[in-house]
Structure formats: C-alpha cells, structure tokens
User: Fold ACT domain-containing protein from Clostridium cibarium.
Amino acid sequence: MNIKVLEENYIVCRLDNEEVVPRWVNSKKFTSITRTEDELSIVCEDKNIPQEIKVERTWRILKIEGPLDFSLIGILSNISSILAEEKISIFAISTFDTDYILVKEEDLEKTINTLIANGHNIININN
Assistant:
C-alpha cells in the first residue's frame, strides 16, 4: 500500500455548531469540515487562524493513495492497529476516494518507520 506524507502542518479546530464556516478555512490544500449537533470541527493548514479559535496544533497527514473501492475491508483498521501497538495516537478522516491519517508531528518519524517495517510504501516524505 502506498502512503503519501503531506508537507504541511495541520490543525484541528473546534467551533460552535451554529457558526458558519469561516473565510480563513478557504484553501486548495487538504481541508475537512464536519458539522454535528455538538460542534463544527475543521481540519486545515496551520495558517491565518485567529487566536481565539480552540485548536489542537502540530498534526501531519498521511494519505492512503487511492482511490479506494468501498468494498475494500480493513485498510484503516490494519494501519490503526499497527500504530496502536507502537502507542501512536491517530485521528482518521475518510473521504469518498480514500482515507487520511493524522499523527502528531513528534510521532511522524516513528509512524513512518513503523509503517515501512510493516510492508507499507511511504512516498513523498518532505518533513
């Protein structure tokens, strides 16, 4: 399986569920916006974020190269299990085409080494 490491640093933001999506989210890079009855959660590049926004910083993203067919089973489970054994916490996001795994910046090297040791191919490492 090919996994691409995205270059940028990302943040996870939490806003009130009734807020509109802010203009500072507008990006052509990876962005994920999820609204629930409890919150508006945004994952985006760590740029131009107002200081009053509640954020969790220093995330890096690993993209499972796709597109992945919906009938495929266990891809995210396999990767998350491998990383859990090494005590690496993840934040996973799935889209129509593929899965993304966020790890903290300080865990990136260990994550890459662990995935390689378990037969995954890491491409475009720019950290």
Q: What stands out?
A: The chain has one domain: 2-123.
